[in-house]
Amino acid sequence: MDKAFDILLVLGLLAPLEDDPGRSSFVQAAARRWQDLVAPLDPGDAARQPDGSITYDHSLNEARPIALRALLPIVRNAAEGETGWPPFWAPTRGKIKPYSQDGVLECWLGIPENGPVKDPAHSDFWRISSAGQAFLKRGLDEDGTAVLSPGTIFDLVLPIWRTAEVLLHAMRLASDWHNEVRSVDIRLRYTGIAGRELATWSRPTSRFLGPGQWRARR
């Protein structure tokens, strides 16, 4: 992958991601906020995403800040469920609906008062700022099914689906913004992958992978 990225950089088809202090502080604040929310939960609670997670953050470049009250309709319009569980879903009911926190729009589906979370993949925590910065933390689907042992499988297809949905969300968010957004920076990070076996659990017929053929080492 490093060689492929180097070639794309030379050809001008990939731009290096510049370190943005403002973006970094937004992401760090979101990560700390999630840690504070899950701190009272039991160590094995699904809302803690104990076996692994994926974190996305993206930033709309040159986006003019908008009023926080105008942000929620834009976020709701951008969340569509191509695979059934859209990123940055904005519920409309009860205690899981988005709210204002620290000057940004926030939503946490793992709130204990809403009842126990059934699996980590449905314990989303996200934040979106009025300046066009977004953060999403979600558990892995492979860890929330009764037919797989948590922390053992890493699906080959799901990362493609999920990342494509986040890209679509960023595109829709940018298109609905109140001024022209010329580009979007996006990052993603997986945790808890070490030791997992690569498999085609979600789409068994997409590609055959023999048992133990591929395994993450770090």
Identify low-pLDDT runs: none
Helices, by number, come to: 4
Instruction: Report the biggest beta sheet as strand number plus sense, adding barrel if it closes.
Output: 6 strands, antiparallel
Shape: globular
Distance between the amino and carboxyl termini: 16 Å
Task: Explain this structure.
Strand 2 (99-101) and strand 3 form a beta hairpin. This protein has a six-stranded antiparallel sheet, with helices on both faces. Helices cover 27% and strands 20% of the residues. It has one domain. The chain has helices at residues 2-11, 21-38, 68-78, 158-176, and strands at 53-61, 99-101, 104-108, 125-128, 133-139, 153-155, 183-191, 197-199. It starts with a helix and ends in a 19-residue tail after the last strand. The mean pLDDT is 86.
Write a concise keyword list for the protein shown above.
single chain, 218 residues, alpha+beta, two-stranded parallel sheet, 4 helices, 27% helix, 20% strand
